[in-house]
């Protein structure tokens, strides 16, 4: 009995000791994150790359329409050529939001390489046309969708470089192109590099 009690006390003490060593969970101020950098890509890298691309695109004048109207943009393929399982929407969504807020571009979600991003535009037409329960004057008619003028495509690449026996450098290349669909001509292209240096023991995936 005494031995059982003794082991119970020891295990309880170990539990308290190890729980005290655990990292405490805290909220992050994403606008003022002073946390240590990581070898992989984090939200700060995507925010920085997206903001740079937005500023570059707007400064280029490629989305300045002479009539003052807004261009219709469609998102093409954004290729992830890194060792990380990342969702490229993490980058493109921030760029889309920035361009929409500029007032120079609207984004169509009715068309995409793998089908419509928002299938409701077509589904509503197919379902509601001819349905007596709906006022047909309020149902979108044929020929009312707007075709895109511009296509945004890109790629994220990763390059790992061994500096010495203890150090490595990881470079991430964010590349983007804006193409006029009518002519197939690229009106804007840019590249941003995020480079990191750290221990060879650190992983970047």
Outline, from the CA principal axes? extended
Strand percentage: 25-35%
How many individual helices?
4
**CATH fold naming:** Rossmann fold
CATH class: Alpha Beta
Order of helices and strands: HHEHEHEEE
Instruction: Say what oligomer this is.
Output: single chain
Fourth-tier CATH superfamily name: ABC-type transport auxiliary lipoprotein component
Which structural category fits the helices and strands?
alpha/beta
Mean pLDDT: 88
Query: In percent, how helical is the residue content?
Result: 25-40%
- From the N-terminal CA to the C-terminal CA, the straight-line distance is 51 Å
Strand line-up of the largest beta sheet = 2-1-3-4-5
What does it look like?
By secondary structure, this protein is α/β, with parallel strands linked by helices. The chain has a single domain (40-61, 70-136, 143-199), classed as 3-Layer(aba) Sandwich (Rossmann fold). It is built from 4 helices and 5 strands; from the N terminus they run ααβαβαβββ. A 5-stranded mixed sheet has the order 2-1-3-4-5, with helices on one face.
Question: Gist?
Answer:
The protein has 205 residues and is an alpha/beta fold. The chain has helices at 2-21, 43-60, 89-102, 120-128; strands at residues 71-81, 105-107, 150-162, 167-180, 185-199.
Give the helix/strand layout.
Layout: H1 2-21, H2 43-60, E1 71-81, H3 89-102, E2 105-107, H4 120-128, E3 150-162, E4 167-180, E5 185-199
Parallel strand pairs: 1-2, 1-3
Antiparallel strand pairs: 3-4, 4-5
């Amino acid at each position: 009995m005494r031995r059982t009690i003794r082991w119970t006390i020891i295990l309880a003490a170990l539990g308290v000791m190890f729980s005290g060593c655990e990292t405490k969970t805290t909220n992050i101020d994403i606008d003022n994150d002073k946390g240590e950098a990581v070898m992989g890509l984090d939200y700060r890298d995507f925010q920085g790359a997206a903001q740079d691309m937005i500023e570059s695109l707007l400064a280029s004048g490629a989305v300045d329409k002479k009539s003052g109207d807004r261009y219709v943009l469609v998102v093409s393929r954004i290729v992830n050529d890194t060792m990380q399982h990342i969702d490229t929407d993490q980058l493109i969504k921030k760029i889309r939001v920035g361009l929409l807020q500029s007032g120079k571009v609207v984004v169509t979600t009715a068309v995409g390489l793998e089908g419509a991003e928002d299938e409701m535009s077509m589904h509503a037409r197919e379902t509601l046309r001819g349905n007596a329960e709906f006022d047909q004057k309020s149902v979108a008619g044929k020929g009312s969708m707007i075709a895109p003028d511009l296509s945004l495509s890109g790629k994220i690449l990763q390059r790992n470089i061994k500096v010495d026996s203890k150090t490595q450098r990881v470079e991430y290349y964010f590349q983007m192109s804006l193409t006029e669909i009518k002519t197939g001509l690229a009106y804007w292209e840019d590249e941003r590099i995020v480079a990191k240096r750290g221990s060879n023991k650190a992983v970047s995936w």
